[in-house]
Structures are given as C-alpha cells and as structure tokens.
UniProtKB/TrEMBL annotation:
Its main location: cytoplasm. One of its GO terms (cellular component) is cytosol. Its EC number is 2.6.1.16. It catalyses: D-fructose 6-phosphate + L-glutamine = D-glucosamine 6-phosphate + L-glutamate. Homodimer. One of its GO terms (molecular function) is carbohydrate derivative binding. This is Glutamine--fructose-6-phosphate aminotransferase [isomerizing]. It is found in: Cytoplasm. Residues 45-189, 214-352 form the SIS domain. Keywords: Aminotransferase, Cytoplasm, Glutamine amidotransferase, Repeat, Transferase. Catalyzes the first step in hexosamine metabolism, converting fructose-6P into glucosamine-6P using glutamine as a nitrogen source. One of its GO terms (biological process) is fructose 6-phosphate metabolic process. The chain holds residues 240 to 601 of 601 of the full protein. It comes from the Bacteria.
Length: 362
C-alpha cells in the first residue's frame, strides 16, 4: 500500500509531519532568503502590502488559527491593521471594508469551499487577493492575484500540524518584508529567528516521552479539557484544543485566561485538566494567577512555559525563541499531546471520524 511506503518507519502520518516541522522551517528560510536584500519576495506582493490600508485574512480551521497569529505579526511588525475572519461567516457578517482592502486567504489545501466562495465574492467587488497555500496549483492559488507557497510538502494527516507552523513562518516573513519596505527599523532578522525556532522544535521532537507522560498524568480518563492563555498564547491554546478534539474526541476548548471567571470556571471540577500556556513575559504573572484560580476549584493544572519564564512544577518547558514566534514552538507539545491522547484511546489518528482533510462543500 502506497501510504505505508510514504509513512516510512512512522506509525502515523501525523507523527511524521510533526517531526518534519524543523526541516519545513529550514526550507522556508532557504526559499525566502535573498543574498543581498535579506528576504526574497515577489515585488507585486510587496507592493500590494504597501498599497493596502487594511488586510482581511480569510481562513478555516487550523489555518484560521494561524491567521490569528498572523494578525499579531503584521500589526506589530508592519503596522498594517488586520482583521481575521472565519471564511464560512464572512458573507453573513461582512465587515465594513476599508478603502483599499487586501484579502489574504490562508489555506493548506487551497481547496476549501468556504474560503473560495469569499474569494469569488471579493474578486467580483474588484479587490486584490493573496493566497498563502501549500498547493500552488490549487483553486485558491489560481484564482487569487498572488500566491505565497508554504513549501511544507504534502500533508496527509487530517489534523494539520506542519502547515500551521509553515503558515506562521511565512506570515512572519511577509510581515517583516512589509515593515522593511515601509522603512520601519526592526531589530529582528526573521530568517535568523526562524533558524532558532527550527532548532527549538527539533529539541521538542526529541522529548516525546515527556509529552506522553503529560498525557498519562492529565488526560488519560478525562472527558474534557480546557486550554488557557493570554495574548498570543490564547490563539495557540485554541489550536491546541482543536487538535485535541479532532483526533482524541476529548471535548476541548481554548479560552482567554481573563475570561474564565466570566463563565467557564463554573465547569471546573475535581480533576478537570487545564492546560495553561505561559510563553509571554508581559502576562506571565496574570496567567499564573488564573491557574491558581482553577487549582483552587480542584483543576489538574498543566503549565507549559518557556525557558526564562518557567517556574518550579511547570509540566513542560519549551526553549526560548523571539516572543512573536513562540506559537511555532509552543504548539508542538500541544500537537504531541493530541497525538498521544488519541493513541492512548485507540482512535484513528490520521483519519478521525466525521472529518475530511479538505472540505470542498460549503
Ligand atoms: C478541514 C481540515 C482542517 C483544516 C481546514 C482548513 O477542516 O480538517 O485540518 O484546518 O479544513 O483547510 P485548509 O486546507 O483551507 O487550510
């Protein structure tokens, strides 16, 4: 069977694709490197980013979660306002558009019907579109004005892993390129920072036993699990929850740490697992305060922190990287947590029930 050959020695595509992430990041660095200018990027895309007064990111599922991080990158580095929209909701809740919108479609497959229908709609309105995809010949790529390629190689597992990290890496490069083109002085070489990220992910991929132990300790028998974070960690928590529910069928939700007290905390019982992300210096104190609140109600709290911000008893510590690029690193233990949780429950890791890799119906 052809799929067995492609999997090589791996039991599942998902695990193989998680392990491929360092190489994918290195490939992106190589593809987007320019000897003299630093970043190599299509000059029409650079111009489109300079011409727009507001970027509208459209995506679904994991690609939407990458878009949430992309907004932070583009706004923080390039100082261009960004809105992120779930593709299936865009036409019902269409925002008031700015004068010179630029639409960015993020899609691993380039075939998601919900995203395509927004593309058709905005092209009819005459607006420019850029697609960020893993499949350059795909529908969303062909029908948009510009394409940025993820260079992640085929992603087979339904649960997206390496495409997510590739999307964030490419969005970071786009954000820095725009900043440079606008003459914004950044103390930040994205390609160098991404090389550090690649090594950090490699180190995490060598710690699978420790992650599996986290699953045994926190998730073995639970029916639900909460992820909390603040700032950029909140978005990564949403992605961690999506991974977990997709393949292990554990009911999982990602929440903003500060929102807990406005409702969700009512669900905390003795033993409820709460996975908290702590990779951001400015919110380290407050996310840990949220952890204390849930622990006081009996939660089984699992803190995943970053080197330099870690404290005694944190369940897992990821290597330090640039604070805007932490999602690339902190998502890896969450991907592996989902993987081992599914494995321990005898779930079909690569082909979860009711889900499709690429959803070509609206
Ligand atoms: C499906 C897949 C998800 C994916 C989403 C968007 O629901 O199961 O893993 O994130 O579609 O797909 P796209 O190819 O547009 O990124």
């Amino acid at each position: 069977d052809a799929s067995d050959i492609e999997k090589g020695t791996y039991p599942h595509f998902m695990l193989k694709e998680i392990d491929e992430q360092p190489a994918v990041i290195r490939k992106i660095v190589q593809e987007y490197r320019h000897e003299k200018e630093g970043i190599k990027l299509d000059k029409d895309i650079r111009q489109a980013m300079l011409d727009t007064d507001r970027v509208y990111i459209i995506a679904a599922g994991t690609s939407y979660h990458a878009g949430l991080v992309g907004k932070q990158l583009i706004e923080n580095l390039a100082k261009v306002p960004v809105e992120v929209h779930v593709a299936s909701e865009f036409s019902y809740n269409m925002p008031l558009l700015s004068e010179k919108p630029l639409f960015i479609f993020i899609s691993q497959s380039g075939e998601t019907a919900d995203s395509r229908s927004v593309l058709v709609q905005i092209k009819e309105m005459g607006y420019p579109a850029l697609t960020i995809t893993n499949v350059p010949g795909s529908t969303l790529s062909r029908e948009a004005d510009y394409t940025l390629h993820l260079h992640a190689g085929p992603e087979i597992a339904v649960a997206s892993t390496k495409a997510y990290t590739a999307q964030i890496a490419v969005l970071a490069i786009l954000a820095v390129d725009t900043a440079k083109a606008k003459g914004i002085d950044l103390d930040f070489d994205p390609l160098q920072e991404l090389a550090i990220v690649s090594s950090a992910i490699e180190a995490l991929c060598d710690q699978k036993d420790e992650i599996e132990a986290v699953v045994s300790k926190y998730l073995e028998t639970t029916r639900n699990c909460f992820f909390i974070g603040r700032g950029i960690d909140y978005f990564v928590g949403q992605e961690g929850a999506l991974k977990l529910k997709e393949i292990s069928y554990i009911q999982a939700e990602g929440f903003a740490g500060g929102e807990l007290k406005h409702g969700t905390i009512a669900l905390i019982e003795e033993g409820t697992p709460v996975i908290a992300l702590a990779t951001q210096k400015n919110v380290n104190y407050s996310i840990r305060a949220n952890v204390q609140e849930v622990v006081a109600r009996g939660a089984n709290a699992c803190i995943i922190s970053m080197e330099g911000l870690n404290e005694e008893n944190d369940a897992f510590v990821v290597p330090a990287v640039h604070e805007l690029l932490t999602p690339l690193v902190s998502v890896v233990p969450l991907q592996l947590i989902a993987y081992y949780a599914a494995l321990h429950r005898d779930c079909d890791v690569d082909k979860p029930r009711n889900l499709a890799k690429s959803v070509t119906v609206e």
